[in-house]
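[User] I have long wanted to understand how a fold can be written as tokens. Those tokens are not coordinates but codes from a learned vocabulary of shapes. Could you go through the record with me and say what the backbone is doing? Thank you; the sequence and its tokens follow:
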Amino acid sequence: MSQDQMDSVTEMLHHSPLDLGGDVDKQRVIFSEMMNASPVAPDALTEKIEIGGIPAVSVRVGQGEPAVTILHFHGGVYAIGSGEDSVGLAADIARPSNARVIAVDYRLSPESPYPAATDDALAAYRAFLGR
């Protein structure tokens, strides 16, 4: 992430209505709106998949075959966010790295308490490694 991008994200978070101590359902909506505020590049190709039995979204940009695959775990302190919300960011990662990005949609708390999210992350990572 460039310094300009980091500054933009920092500014957005400092002035956003997001309250990580607030009602989780409301915060999920706000976070989703924030993540989807920028349009996804029109050449981003997405596909819903599973990796290690965990739902995910595969994202690539353009028509060429990606050189590498990146496993991405969205932010959201294990309570908000989703792989689908991460498509724009995943496309931004995929483009300069000529990569396929797999955005994992791990289970969220409080519906799925600890260690559900980390169990999902580990299952996806093991599948990613082919183990």
The first strand starts at residue 44 and ends at 51. Strands lie at 44-51, 54-61, 68-73, 99-104. Residues 2 and 8 are 10 Å apart (CA to CA).
